[in-house]
Write a structure and sequence with these properties.
Blueprint: H1 14-21, E1 26-28, E2 41-51, H2 55-61, H3 78-82, E3 86-91, H4 110-119, E4 123-125, H5 135-148, E5 153-154, E6 156-157, H6 160-166, E7 169-173, E8 176-184, E9 197-198, H7 203-215, E10 220-226, H8 237-249, E11 253-257, E12 265-269, E13 275-279, E14 284-286, E15 296-306, E16 310-323, H9 325-328, E17 334-337, H10 347-367, E18 373-374
Parallel strand pairs: 1-7, 2-3, 2-14, 3-4, 4-5, 8-10, 10-11, 11-13, 16-18
Antiparallel strand pairs: 2-15, 6-9, 7-8, 12-13, 15-16, 16-17
Length: 377
């Protein structure tokens, strides 16, 4: 099992880190030697979609005594997630404390965060349209909980000083310097609480952030975007144009979410022969959504190599489907890899999983571009 990221005092140590790296930004340092030009370094990255928590999920996870048990959620995919050097997903709930609520203003039990960590995720993004659901308390308590378990995060901040000190997020691992950016199109009409910071899609702001990221001398710069139209399975013109702009500004790869359904994946090759991954929407990672195409999602992986150059050596996607208790007749929700043995599923589970997979594969067959393939479980 890979060594997990733990930075129990990284915010308190940020001033020292800034001096060490001669830049501002949150650095997850691994104390690993720099690679020489004749040595090939390799790192594997995994990106998951929207981690939801509807009231049906909260109720199903409740146990006697007032606690919550999410142990069944990720047990079929945990080994896969944990096999990657870094795994990132979007936390689309607040950890705002009781009362726990689902849509339209989410506040999930703390046990949900522990289950996400135990599933193998290393970094969570928080800039999404639900980050202001519990106001300032929700933003601050979510950050406090993430910090309490040593989980690096990006997208929302308790104040502008914290944002300036800890954003963009610099991760150092396997000889790589990886910088992450995260933005959302909005917050469902809820105002950003006075003093708090939410990274909104604003090109002037993003251009400044990208310029700052470049001073951190990254090997790779990745933007994680919360954008698009809910339930639309093809990206709109705004997503496409913004993706083009981000690449022009120097972003290397783009990972998208928010529509709650999967959207196409592209691997673009620029004039210098470098490959750039663009996943418009990973869909839901886990949720209680039941509409056709929203009951599943995907993970996207990439392998980066570095010697005299840095390159995208490989990438793929893997499809996932969520069994809700009403379908599985089990107590809790459970995430299955598409391709899970039919003999271990009931007839309705098999039917719905097959429907999701059929629709996603038809979409990708028509719209995917470049060298991207499905990882078959």
């Amino acid at each position: 099992m890979r060594r997990k990221l733990h930075i129990p005092s990284y915010i308190l140590q940020i001033s020292l880190l800034c001096l060490l790296f001669s830049c501002q930004g949150n650095s997850v340092a691994k104390d690993e030697p720099a690679a020489s030009a004749d040595t090939t370094c390799r790192i594997t990255l995994l990106f998951g979609g929207d981690l939801m928590q509807h009231i049906t999920q909260i109720n199903a996870a409740s146990v006697a005594g007032g606690g919550y048990d999410y142990s069944s959620y990720f047990d079929k995919v945990q080994t896969y997630i944990d096999s990657f050097d870094l795994a990132v997903a979007n936390l689309e709930v607040t950890l705002g404390g009781r009362p726990y609520t689902g849509y339209p203003q989410f506040s999930a039990p703390d046990e949900y965060l522990y289950a996400i960590r135990d599933a193998g995720f290393d970094i969570l993004t928080t800039a999404n349209n639900h980050c202001c659901d519990r106001g300032r308390k929700g933003i601050e308590r979510t950050i406090q909980m993430l910090d309490s378990i040593g989980m690096p995060h990006l997208g929302t901040y308790k104040d502008s000083a914290a944002c300036a000190q800890t954003y963009p997020l610099l991760v150092e691992k396997n000889g790589f310097r990886i910088v992450l950016l995260n933005y959302t199109y909005g917050t469902n009409g809820l105002p950003v609480p006075q003093g708090s910071v939410v990274n909104l899609i604003d090109r002037e702001r993003m251009a400044r952030d990208i310029a700052k990221a470049k001073t951190m001398e990254p090997d790779v710069l990745i933007a994680i975007m919360h954008w698009g139209i809910e339930y639309a399975m093809v990206p709109n013109a705004e997503q496409r144009e913004l993706a083009d702009w981000l690449f022009q500004q120097g972003v290397d790869h783009i990972i998208g979410g928010h529509p709650h359904v999967v959207q196409p994946v592209e691997v673009r090759t620029d004039a210098e022969g470098r490959k750039h991954l663009l996943a418009y929407s990973l869909g839901n990672f886990i949720s209680n959504q039941m509409m056709e195409n929203s009951d599943g999602g995907m993970m996207v992986s990439m392998t980066l190599e570095k010697d005299s150059t840095v390159r995208l050596a490989d990438c793929d996607y893997s499809l996932l489907w969520v069994a809700r208790p009403v379908v599985s007749h089990q107590k809790n929700h459970r995430l299955y890899p598409v391709g899970y043995p039919d003999s271990l599923l009931n007839s309705e589970e098999r039917r719905l999983m097959a429907r999701f997979a059929r629709n996603a594969r038809a979409l990708f067959e028509k719209h995917n571009r470049g060298d991207i393939r499905e990882h078959r479980w």
